[in-house]
Amino acid sequence: MKILNLYFSATGNTEKIANQIAKAAKDAGHIVETVKITKDAEVDILAYDFVFIGSGVYTWLPGKPMMEFLNHTRERYGNLGEIKPSSPRRAGKKAVVYCSFGGGHTGINEALPAAKFMGQLFDHLGYEIMSEWFFVGEFHGRLQHLSTTGRLGNIEGRPNEADLQDIYQRTLGILGV
Ligand SMILES: Cc1cc2nc3c(=O)[nH]c(=O)nc-3n(C[C@H](O)[C@H](O)[C@H](O)COP(=O)(O)O)c2cc1C
Asked: Taking all residues of the chain, what is their mean pLDDT, rounded to a whole number?
């Protein structure tokens, strides 16, 4: 299967996850293209059967470059007539949406809008959203204190080795290995 592995990562957490997804998918024998999103990135999404898309959570939504990418990609596919009324399903097209988040104030509720937002482009295009995954990612920089004082307790060092193992297994599972 041809797999597209899209991600945005501002402080490196989602990048670790995306690399682990790529490793598992390749180990399972698939062809994987990994793309770190920039705001102007143009990606031929419809050329892929299976898409992983992930971002860190920033004020409850994906990072800004990912937001801009999703918005202009929706506009481009809309203009091409690929987003149809009622969004009919495209046979065999599947997506997994995931976030990495710190949940410093309200826990996973902060990540839910981000996953829903990212998933909508694929739902509009007729992809089946197979799953939404949420991974804990420590805060870096000026908000670092939230890694020990937030709603999720001590999340320093996340995603850690155990998280990455979990991601590897989940990826194999969703790909039917
Ligand atoms: C400036 C900033 C804002 C953040 N805002 C949120 C937020 O609103 N909700 C949340 O759950 N996590 C928030 N986080 C935590 C990040 O989502 C988390 O660390 C994530 O794993 C970062 O992923 P990345 O390194 O791939 O960008 C924030 C982190 C930073 C640095």
From this structure: 97
